[in-house]
Design a protein that fits this description.
It is a single chain. With 319 residues, the protein is of the alpha+beta class. It folds into 2 domains: 250 residues, Beta Polymerase, domain 2 (2-Layer Sandwich); 62 residues, Methane Monooxygenase Hydroxylase, Chain G, domain 1 (Up-down Bundle), CATH 1.20.58. Helix content is 60%, strand content 16%. Strands 2-1-3-7-6-5-4 form a 7-stranded mixed sheet, with helices on both faces. Helix 5 runs parallel beside helix 7.
Amino acid sequence: MMNIFIKKNSLVVRESFSNTDTIQLKDQIILWIDLLHPTFEEVAYIAKTYKLDIPTKEEREEIEQSARYWEDSTSVTINSFFLVRPAKLQLHNETATFILYNGILFTIRYGDFKVFDEIQQRVLASPKNFEDGFDLISKIYEVRVEKDADMLEEVGHETKILRKEVFDKDQPDYTNILQRLSNLQEINMSVRDSLADKRRAITALLKSDKIDMDTKKNLNIVLKDLNSLVEFTTVNMNILDNVQSLFTNQINIEQNKIIKLFTVATMAMMPPTLIGTIYGMNFKNMPELEWAFGYPIAIIVMVVSTILPVLYFKKKGWL
């Protein structure tokens, strides 16, 4: 589907097309062409109409700097990570492609990024704030970075709660804690990758001579926010690693308690076992076998020999 935002007087109107045969762009002042889940025909139509070199799917996913950002005399192309969380799937990064050509912003995306819907509503509501495609891409990055910041704040809050649960509960749910810890680490890494990719793109875009000073000023503010957020993800990751270490140590402590308990129980049972073994032998000349009270005496000795080690271990603080 193609959403085309056209300037008409002091307004911006949106026209949606699902078939390239019905598109009429002549004599229209275009601000933004957004291609959502585009077909081959739609991509080919834009490439032919505006003589653009649109990256293929393989080129969009490459991680080299030269594949994430490049520009020529007439256009700027950016492949940038955006976070998405489809239903029943984990948060992950998908690439959105931005092409800036003659003041027009072209976006090619195969994911339903909420930030694009929000910007589209802003464009329609306040068209005077968007003079060209550079204003659009600046606002898209600004809004997306704000949402990434909110996500990191949530991760930090959940991390503090998780850290307390490791020690506060007498019998913590280890499986639940481990799963939540893994999810928080995965989210933090995904956000960090997304932020680092945006930082590279904006840094390169600021060096371009195609954008005006106001846009550069806005992008510089976004870049400062990105730098602070990348540092925040590092802090978050260190805290999560600390929680993981504490969690591992807590499990080791619990295991040591169990091993200690079994060790003490084994040591306490050794003397009565020795006594029972001695009097379980079948030698003929064993004087204790003739004692009238030999059996109860043996039982009493076995019980006492069990209690004494336990009392000794308690006195030493081993129990």
